[in-house]
Recover the amino acids of this structure.
C-alpha cells in the first residue's frame, strides 16, 4: 500500500525539519508530502486521492496566513473523515485546539517545540489506528455484503421451501387419493377373485363329482372314454382357473402364508393317494421316500407346500411315458433359530427331460417347451412360475437338474418350523400306506354322517361318493335344519358346506359348538368352494375340525374321513 504523510506549515524551515525528522523515524516506509498553505494542502490531498494514495495522517501548523490550521483541518476532516488530524500549536492557543477537536475530530495536538519521540509515537499511533479502522471498514463492508447475499438466499430458500412444501402436500394428497383408489380396486379384485372362484368351483364340483361317479358305473368302452374326456377337460379347466387366480394373487402380493400344524407323513400320504392312482394308470411306478431323520411335525404353510409338490408331481407324471416317479424328502440343514429345519424336496422322473436352454426358461410365466401346433401335453405354462413364487415367498430355493431324453429332477429347499409337540395324535402319521387307498373300507357303515349342503346337485354327489366309499348319511339343506337335526340325533361327522342361504356353515358351527347340550364329540368338516386364503383358519376359528376344498376329490374325502374316524377310535 502506498502511504503518505502530509505536513503543512507556511514556514518552510519548520516544514523541512518536520520532513527530516519523519524520514529519520520511518525511513522509506512512508512518503512525506509537503504543503506551505491550506490551499496547497487541499490540492495535494486531491491529487493523492486521484492517484489512490492513502493519507492516514495530516500534520498541520496552527498559525498560517489566510487559513488557520484548525479551520483547514476541519475542512480536511469534512472531505476525508478517516484521515487522522494532528495540530502543531503553541501552549496559549488552547481555544484553537478545542475548535479543532470539535470540528476536525482532532486526533492529537503537539505543542511547539515538539519532542521527536512524541512526534514519532503520535504519527505511528495515528497510522496504526487509521489502518485498523480501514481494515475494520473493509471487513464490515464484506460482512454487510455477505449479509445482503444471505438475506437474498434466505428469501429464495424460504420461497423454495414454501413451494416444495406445497408441492409435497399436493403430492401426498394425490398419493392418498390414488392409494385409497388402489385399495378400493384391490378389495374389489379380491372380492371378485373370491366370488369368481366360488362361482366356477360350484358347477365344477358337480361336473367333476358326477363324472367320477359315472366312471365307476357300468359304461361301455366308448362311454368310458367320453366320461374320461369330460373329467380330464374339467380338471384342466379347474387347474387353469386355479393357476390364474393364484398368479394374480401372487403378483398382487395378496397370497398369504397360513401357518398350520401338520404331520409331514400325513401330507405325503395324501399326495400319494392322489398321484399313485394316476401313475398306476399310466403304467408308472410311484414311490414316496421320507428320510428317517426328517422330523414328524411342523407348524408352517402346509397348503402351499402341497401346492408346489402337486405341481411338480403332476408334471413328472405328465412328462413321463414309462418308468418311475419318486418323491424324496431329506434334511438339508438344521437351524438353531426358531427350531427350524431346512428340508429338501425332490421329484425325480425318467421322462422326456429338458435341454439346458429350456431349463433356464421354464420358470418364466407361460413357458412351455413343446410349442408345436400338435402339442402333446396339456397345461398353461404357469405351474412352475407359481411354484417358484411360492418357494421364494417361503424364503426357499427351487431348481431343476435334467438330461434331455433321460429325465428330470425338480427340487426345492425350504426352512420349515418344527412343532413343539413331539408326538403325533394322527393315526397314520408315521408311515405312508398308499396301497390302502385303492379299495373302499368297511368301517364306514357304522359311522353316522350328516351332510349339510344347499345345492341339490352337490347333495346328491356327496351322498353318492359316501355311498361308494361305504358310508351312508343324512342330508339337510341349510344351517337351520342342521341345528334342528343335530339337537335330536347324534352324528360322528358333519360335512358342512360353508356358503349357504338362511344360516351359513360358519355360523351353524359356531352356534353348535356354543350349545353345551349338543354332542361336542361330533367332528365338523367344512366344505368350501372359495378356496381363498383364510378359509381354513375361518373354519377352525368357528369350531370346525377340518376343511375340504371343493371340488371334492373322492380320495381326499376318503382320507379325511378315515383320519377322523381313526382319531375318534383312538380317543
Ligand atoms: P405346464 O406344465 O402347465 O405347461 P409348467 O410351468 O408346470 O407349465 O411347466 C412349464 C414347462 O416346463 C412344461 O410345459 C414343460 O415343457 C416343462 N416341464 C415341466 N416339468 C417337466 C418335467 N418333469 N419333465 C419335462 N419337462 C417338464
Amino acid at each position: 500500500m502506498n502511504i503518505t504523510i502530509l505536513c503543512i506549515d507556511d514556514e518552510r524551515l519548520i516544514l523541512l525539519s518536520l520532513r527530516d525528522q519523519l524520514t529519520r523515524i520511518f525511513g522509506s516506509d512512508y512518503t512525506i508530502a509537503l504543503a506551505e498553505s491550506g490551499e496547497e494542502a487541499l490540492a495535494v490531498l486531491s491529487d493523492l486521492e486521484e492517484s489512490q494514495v492513502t493519507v492516514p495522517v495530516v500534520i498541520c501548523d496552527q498559525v498560517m496566513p489566510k487559513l488557520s490550521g484548525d479551520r483547514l483541518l476541519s475542512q480536511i476532516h469534512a472531505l476525508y473523515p478517516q484521515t487522522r488530524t494532528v495540530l502543531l500549536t503553541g501552549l496559549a492557543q488552547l481555544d484553537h485546539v478545542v475548535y479543532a477537536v470539535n470540528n476536525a475530530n482532532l486526533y492529537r495536538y503537539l505543542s511547539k517545540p515538539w519532542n521527536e519521540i512524541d512526534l514519532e509515537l503520535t504519527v505511528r499511533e495515528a497510522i496504526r489506528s487509521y489502518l485498523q479502522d480501514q481494515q475494520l471498514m473493509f471487513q464490515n463492508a464484506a460482512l454487510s455484503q455477505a449479509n445482503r447475499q444471505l438475506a437474498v438466499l434466505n428469501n429464495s430458500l424460504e420461497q423454495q421451501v414454501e413451494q416444495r412444501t406445497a408441492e409435497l402436500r399436493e403430492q401426498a394428497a394425490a398419493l392418498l387419493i390414488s392409494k385409497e383408489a388402489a385399495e378400493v380396486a384391490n378389495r374389489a379384485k379380491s372380492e371378485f377373485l373370491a366370488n369368481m372362484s366360488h362361482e366356477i368351483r360350484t358347477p365344477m364340483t358337480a361336473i367333476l363329482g358326477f363324472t367320477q361317479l359315472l366312471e365307476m358305473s357300468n359304461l361301455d368302452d366308448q362311454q368310458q372314454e367320453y366320461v374320461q374326456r369330460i373329467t380330464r377337460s374339467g380338471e384342466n379347466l379347474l387347474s387353469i382357473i386355479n393357476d390364474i387366480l393364484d398368479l394374480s394373487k401372487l403378483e398382487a402380493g395378496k397370497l398369504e402364508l397360513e401357518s398350520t400344524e401338520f404331520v409331514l407323513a400325513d401330507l405325503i400320504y395324501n399326495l400319494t393317494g392322489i398321484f399313485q392312482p394316476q401313475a398306476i394308470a399310466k403304467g408308472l411306478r410311484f414311490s414316496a421316500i421320507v428320510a428317517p431323520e426328517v422330523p414328524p411335525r411342523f407348524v408352517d404353510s402346509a397348503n402351499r407346500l402341497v401346492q408346489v409338490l402337486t405341481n411338480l408331481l403332476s408334471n413328472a407324471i405328465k412328462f413321463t411315458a414309462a418308468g418311475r416317479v419318486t418323491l424324496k424328502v431329506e434334511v438339508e440343514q438344521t437351524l438353531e433359530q426358531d427350531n427350524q429345519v431346512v428340508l429338501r424336496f425332490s421329484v425325480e422322473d425318467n421322462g422326456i427331460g429338458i435341454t439346458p436352454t429350456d431349463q433356464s426358461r421354464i420358470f418364466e410365466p407361460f413357458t412351455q417347451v413343446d410349442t408345436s401346433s400338435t402339442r402333446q401335453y396339456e397345461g398353461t405354462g404357469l405351474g412352475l412360475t407359481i411354484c417358484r413364487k411360492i418357494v421364494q415367498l417361503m424364503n426357499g430355493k427351487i431348481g431343476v437338474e435334467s438330461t434331455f431324453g433321460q429325465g428330470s429332477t425338480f427340487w426345492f429347499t425350504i426352512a420349515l418350523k418344527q412343532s413343539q409337540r413331539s408326538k403325533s395324535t394322527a393315526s397314520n402319521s408315521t408311515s405312508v400306506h398308499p396301497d390302502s387307498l385303492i379299495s373302499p373300507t368297511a368301517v364306514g357303515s357304522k359311522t353316522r354322517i350328516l351332510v349339510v349342503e344347499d345345492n341339490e346337485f352337490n347333495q346328491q354327489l356327496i351322498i353318492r361318493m359316501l355311498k361308494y366309499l361305504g358310508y351312508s348319511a343324512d342330508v339337510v339343506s341349510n344351517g337351520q335344519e342342521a341345528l334342528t337335526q343335530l339337537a335330536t340325533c347324534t352324528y360322528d361327522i358333519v360335512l358342512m358346506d360353508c356358503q349357504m342361504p338362511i344360516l351359513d356353515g360358519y355360523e351353524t358351527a359356531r352356534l353348535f359348538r356354543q350349545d353345551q347340550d349338543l354332542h361336542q364329540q361330533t367332528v365338523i368338516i367344512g366344505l368350501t368352494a372359495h378356496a381363498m386364503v383364510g378359509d381354513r383358519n375361518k373354519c377352525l376359528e368357528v369350531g370346525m375340525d377340518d376343511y375340504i376344498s371343493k371340488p371334492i376329490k373322492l380320495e381326499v374325502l376318503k382320507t379325511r374321513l378315515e383320519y377322523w374316524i381313526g382319531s375318534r377310535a383312538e380317543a
In short: The first strand starts at residue 3 and ends at 8. The pocket of adenosine-5'-diphosphate is lined by residues 311, 315-316, 319, 349, 351-352, 354, 362, 367-370, 379-385, 408 (CB under 6 Å).
